Amino acid sequence: MSITIERPPVKTRTDTELSPKYTLTAEQLDAFGDEMDAIRQRVVADLGEEDANYIRKVVKYQRGFEVAGRVMFYIPPLWPAAVASLSVSKILDNMEIGHNVMHGQYDWMGDPALNSRMFDWDTMAPAENWKYGHNYMHHTYTNIVGKDRDVGYGILRMDEEQEWRPYYLGNPLYAFLLMTFFEWGVMLHDLEVEEVFAGRRHLWRGENAPIMRRIRKKVGKQVLKDYVVFPLLSGPFFLTTLAGNAVANLVRNVWTFNIIFCGHFPAGVATFTVEETENESRGGWYYRQLLGSANITGSKLLHVMSGNLSHQIEHHLFPDIPARRYPELSVEVQEICQRYGLQYNTGPLHKQLFSVAKKIFRLSLPTRAPKTPQSTVTETPLAA
């Protein structure tokens, strides 16, 4: 199975070298890392036909919803149902299939259609660009302010460690626009547009040249499909089909934005500085993933429609394990967290959404960075 992130090698550190945010001793961090490694190794060894059947079933349903939606656009009274069906298809393609397949979660199957190197999804962001920015940069440097560009996406102030500027007074507006046009925001993310505006990077030359080439190709393909070909195929229903495709993309954008933001930015999620994570051990990497993520409680349908990113903690701990395993792993991870006295941030969707919205508004104004650790319990000895 291919590994899509860099895990630090085993390193030893004395307790005095650890940042105050690390409420475990160096020995406890090593033991914590060993337990996480053991979980991953056990699950990888157990992958098999049940996992393969699951993802193939999801693909089958995703395609069925898409076909049903496209067909119903030919029947004007069924336009709302067509939009709903196409929206479900796009969400499944984006969340439970695209995101997870491109993490390499199903590479072990040997199926070219589900291989992370060959798969591309129904969204504006080119797969190759996204895999570097997300699989490598985000999952390696999760919540390290200054390295993880997903902290604010180069647009928002989502952490008090980010220096406030008058620009951030527009935080709520920027968040709304990013939610509405989320697939476009993800598409532009790897261009580091904020660096372009600062004059430190060119939009289409230098290191952005291959990124922009892939964007032009992918955007052309997506625009042609959703806004030209399928509307033309519907003949006299061109405009209603065009509008339906646009609304389905909007629904997918809003849903994806909210699931992702609830997994990364609600209250209690910790961030780290570059200095705090220097010479990070394997256990330290797991620790950072745990405290830098949050889960969403809910029904099985919510978990499927979120690509199981409702279990963002487990996803950050085990990004290349099939996401369908996260619900069962969450029970084990919570038990381990209780033994180590570590925060396990979880709550219903409405609670996490309110927390994120509150943070977006609060951080639009000048704030002072907290100096206290963000974990809930300190120095807890291991249970026997």
UniProtKB/TrEMBL annotation:
UniProt xrefs under InterPro entries: FA_desaturase_dom, Fatty_acid_desaturase
Gene Ontology cellular-component terms listed: membrane
GO BP of this protein: lipid metabolic process
One annotated GO molecular function: oxidoreductase activity, acting on paired donors, with oxidation of a pair of donors resulting in the reduction of molecular oxygen to two molecules of water
Fatty acid desaturase domain span: 78-346
Residue ranges the record marks as coiled coil: none
Protein name: Acyl-CoA desaturase
Organism: Nocardioides immobilis
